[in-house]
Specification:
The chain has 13 helices and 15 strands. By secondary structure, the protein is of the alpha+beta class. A hairpin with a 2-residue loop joins strand 3 and strand 4.
Amino acid sequence: MQPDLIDKQQKASKASEADLNPTGFESLQIRIYPLTPDQFTAVSEHYQNWKELFQNDPHSDLEQHPDHVLRIAPLLQRSQPSINGHLILCRQGNKPVAAGILLPKSISTKVLRGFGPARQIHGYFLYGKRFLIAEDYQHDHAFQKFLLEATLSFCGQTAGRYLLLEDILIDEPLNQSLFQLSPHCLSYSHTGFQSRCLIQFPENPEDYWNQFRSKSRRKHRKLIRDNSNLKLVRITRPDQVADFLDAAHRISRNTWQTQRLGLRVKNSDKELEELMFFALNDSLRSYLLMDQDQPVAFKIGSQHRGIYHDLEFGFDLDYARVSPGETLLLLILEDLISFDTPRTFDFGTGDAEYKQRYCSETTRSRSVLLIPASLRNKSLLNYLKLSCWIDRVSRNALKTSGIYTAVRQLVRYRKLGSR
């Protein structure tokens, strides 16, 4: 199968209309390759270009490694067998300057905060949450805008109705380029900007604890003493992955996240492949909290290029009275400080109270849908924006009355004292 081709020189008139070329990208060529085994042998030019970009981009995520993507893509595609994943590869002559990984995505209108009967809409998401970009283009907003619009153009020509950008930090060039998109690109954020908590560890990691008052530090030590029967297990090796996933799955069946959002850890082939790949590349750093032989709480995490990523967390509600979540976090922080300390601990999205209490820095991030402009898509966008406005007004009214917080606590901890 030959790759689809978007040649900037052949689309000069369209580029002029949409202002796609403000700084002169006529020399760039974008090719789009379906993620099939015959296209990506280890000796193929586009595989080598992809790998070169991954290795040279200081902000690349291990999820974007070609070997990982080529193994995970068929597993993700099972939900949408009619849509292939694709690699967007941008070259300047023979030099690769950017790549984007598109995988199929199906989203319920309920997830997008739409009211009324739920229905599925199909599209693509940018895997790894960003493009891989050569050094010369890292902070070029116009170039990222060019990549976004070319990618969205491809989505509009295929079965993909949208391009989903997940968890984009507010100060990233990719987010800044969203404000410069042409009128032919519609955008919608179902999350809005959300707080994102980080820990920036000081040069002497032990100094992290100095941000807390002495009373708080005594409280931390007391909590660990009171739960001295609970032991922390660090998960880093490939031979630990299967048992860890099984334990996390058992815990996940009785967490507030599962009760509210659905089962979070399914012990699936996809999860096994992801964690095994992290482990084989010395990036897996997950944890279990054990009460003798009984798993009580877990954290799925990875550490790559100096950043610890908090990917998933849960505790057994039968143990809620002993604060297993906070105990686990304190023990993890002690472990991170004493061994292979990362530069940054990224809690992920959300403004949970415990994240605010332990972080040293707060930023914001959001997820955004990019949709080709059409009458049908404009109608969809108006419906979603109206639904989101109603949802936001309702939540604010409940928060003002105090009902929202009470209901959230009831949902999360309704099994307090059940053990």
